[in-house]
Specification:
Protein name: Maltose/maltodextrin transport system permease protein
Radius of gyration: 32 Å
Number of helices: 17
Order of helices and strands: HHHHEEHEEEEHHHHHHHHHHHH
Number of strands: 6
Main location: membrane
CATH superfamily of the largest domain: MetI-like
Strand content: 5-15%
Mean pLDDT: 86
Subcellular location: Cell membrane
InterPro entries: MalF_N, MetI-like, MetI-like_sf
Structural class: alpha+beta
Domain ABC transmembrane type-1: 231-455
Low-confidence stretches: none
CATH class of the largest domain: Mainly Alpha
CATH topology of the largest domain: MetI-like fold
C-alpha cells in the first residue's frame, strides 16, 4: 500500500504548456508499450498451452493489461486520468501512420517481394527421404541446371547455416531445419529430424534479408527509363492541373458572383455537378467518350471533318486527355472557393472604384485578384500536393498507358510517381516487389518534401508564419 503522505505529495494538476502535453503523451506511450509487452508474453504462454489459440487473442490480452495498468498508473500519476481520452488517437496514429511508415522504411532496405517473402517456396518442392540417423535428407531431383547450392540459394558453398523446409506426405506443417553441409543431392542437417515427422518432400526458403542501398542503386541505375521521365510528367501533371483548374475556377466564379446575372443559381448547380458525381463513375464515362473508334468525341470531330484523335492510345494525347478530364473534375472546387472568397470582399471597395471611373476589368485586376491571392495560395498549394499523388485519375483513365518505347513496363507514358510505385509493388513482372516499391515511396517522399518547401518559400508561407 502507498503511504497516505506519499500519495498526498503527488500532484493532481498536470504540468502546464507544451511540457505537460509531452509528459502526458510519454506516460501514455509507456503504459501502452508495457501493455503490449505483457499481452505478447501472455499470448506466447497461451499458444504453448493451447496450440489452436486464435491470433487475435493477443489483442484481448493487451486490452486486459491496459484495464489493469490504467488504475495503477492513475495511483502513481493522478493527473493522467484527464489525458486518457488521447488513447484512441494514439492507437490510431501508431497503427495507421507510424507503423506503415516504419515498415516502408524497413522494406526499402530489404529484398522483400513475392519471391523473397520469408516463406517456403512451394513452386520448387521436390521429393525427399531421410536417413536412418535422421540427420541426412536426400532430394529426389533438382531443377534442371541447378546445383544444391543454387537450389537452396545458399549464402556460402557449404550452405552451412542456411535453411531447408521439410514436409510430410500431406505437406500440412512445414518444418524448418538448419543445414550443416551439402554434397550432391544430400543435405546434412545440424540437428536430427524429429521422429514425429515422416519426411516426404523438401523445398527451399525464399529468404527475406537486408540488402542495404541496392534498391536505390537499382532505381537510379535505370533512372532514364523510369524515375526522371515519370518525375517530369508528375510535375507537369500537377502544375498543369493547378493552373488550368484555378484559371477556370476564377473565371467562372467571378462571372457567377455577379448579382445581376439571371439564373446564376441554376448555372452554379449545373457546374457543380462534376464535383458531386463520384470520380469512379465519371472517369469511366470519359473513357467511353474518348474511345478512338466509337467515342462521341471522335464521332463529333468526324462530322466536322477532322480525323479521329487517339485520345487514350497515343502518349501525348493521353496526357492531354488526363489534363482535360482532371479539369472537368477539379474546376467546380476552384469555382466554389472563388465564390466563397469573393463574398468576403467589402462591396464598398467596388463602389469607390466605380466612382473613381474604374472599369470592370480594372476592378478585377486591382481589387479582386490581389484580395483573392491570400485565400488561393493555400488552396493552390494543397491542390498541387494532392495532384502530385493523384493516383485515381491515372489508374481509372489510362492505367498508366499507353506503352512507350524505352520505358520500364511499370513506368509507362502517363504513370506518375505513385502509380509507378503501385505497379512495382503489385504488377511488376515476376511477382510483387514490395522492397523496390518502398524505396520508390521514400524517393517520392523526399521529392514531395523538396517541392513543398520550394512552394512554401515562393508563396511566402514561412514569412507569414513568423509574423
Amino acid at each position: 500500500m502507498t503511504p497516505p503522505a506519499a500519495a498526498a505529495r503527488r500532484p493532481t494538476v498536470p504540468p502546464a504548456g507544451t511540457r505537460g502535453v509531452l509528459i502526458a503523451i510519454g506516460v501514455l506511450l509507456v503504459m501502452l508499450g508495457v501493455a503490449a509487452l505483457v499481452g505478447w508474453a501472455i499470448s506466447s504462454v497461451t499458444s504453448q498451452v493451447w496450440a489452436a489459440a486464435p491470433p487475435y487473442l493477443i489483442l484481448v490480452w493487451v486490452v486486459v493489461a491496459l484495464l489493469v495498468l490504467m488504475p495503477l498508473t492513475y495511483r502513481l500519476v493522478p493527473w493522467i486520468a484527464n489525458w486518457y481520452y488521447l488513447f484512441p488517437a494514439l492507437v490510431f496514429i501508431l497503427a495507421f501512420t507510424v507503423l506503415p511508415v516504419v515498415l516502408t522504411v524497413n522494406y526499402a532496405f530489404t529484398n522483400y517481394s513475392g519471391e523473397n517473402s520469408g516463406n517456403p517456396d512451394s513452386g520448387v518442392r521436390t521429393g525427399a527421404t531421410v536417413s536412418a540417423d535422421r540427420r541426412t535428407v536426400t532430394l529426389a531431383d533438382l531443377p534442371e541446371g541447378q546445383t544444391l547450392q543454387t537450389y537452396l540459394k545458399c549464402r556460402s558453398a557449404t550452405c552451412r547455416g542456411d535453411t531447408v523446409i521439410l514436409y510430410d506426405e500431406d505437406a500440412s506443417v512445414p518444418v524448418r531445419a538448419k543445414v550443416q553441409s551439402v554434397a550432391g543431392t544430400a543435405i546434412t542437417l545440424q540437428n536430427a529430424v524429429p521422429q514425429s515427422l515422416e519426411v516426404a518432400n523438401a523445398t527451399r526458403l525464399n529468404r527475406y534479408e537486408r540488402v542495404g542501398l541496392r534498391n536505390f542503386q537499382d532505381i537510379f541505375a535505370r533512372a532514364s527509363r523510369a524515375l526522371w521521365p515519370v518525375f517530369v510528367w508528375t510535375v507537369i501533371f500537377a502544375l498543369g492541373t493547378v493552373i488550368l483548374n484555378t484559371l477556370a475556377g476564377l473565371i467562372l466564379g467571378i462571372l457567377l458572383f455577379n448579382k445581376r446575372l439571371k439564373g446564376r443559381n441554376i448555372y452554379r448547380t449545373l457546374l457543380f455537378l462534376p464535383w458531386a458525381i463520384p470520380a469512379v463513375i465519371s472517369v469511366q464515362m470519359w473513357v467511353a467518350l474518348f474511345n478512338q473508334q466509337f467515342g462521341i468525341v471522335n464521332k463529333s470531330l468526324g462530322l466536322l471533318g477532322f480525323a479521329a484523335v487517339p485520345w487514350l492510345g497515343d502518349p501525348l494525347w493521353a496526357k492531354v486527355s488526363i489534363l482535360l478530364v482532371n479539369l472537368w473534375l477539379g474546376f467546380p472546387y476552384m469555382m466554389t472557393a472563388t465564390i466563397s472568397a469573393l463574398a468576403t470582399i467589402n462591396e464598398d471597395l467596388y463602389e469607390a472604384a466605380s466612382i473613381d471611373g474604374a472599369s470592370r476589368w480594372q476592378q478585377i485586376t486591382n481589387i479582386t485578384l490581389p484580395l483573392l491571392r491570400t485565400s488561393f495560395t493555400p488552396i493552390m498549394l494543397s491542390a498541387f500536393a494532392f495532384n502530385f499523388n493523384n493516383f485515381g485519375i491515372i489508374y481509372l483513365l489510362t492505367a498508366g498507358g499507353p506503352a512507350q518505347e524505352g520505358r520500364e513496363s511499370t513506368a509507362q507514358s502517363t504513370d506518375i510517381l505513385l502509380s509507378w510505385g503501385y505497379n512495382t509493388a503489385f504488377a511488376s513482372s515476376g511477382g510483387q516487389n514490395y522492397a523496390l516499391a518502398s524505396a520508390i515511396a521514400l524517393i517520392i517522399f523526399f521529392l514531395t518534401l523538396a517541392i513543398s518547401l520550394v512552394n512554401f518559400k515562393a508563396a511566402g508561407v514561412f514569412e507569414e508564419a513568423r509574423k
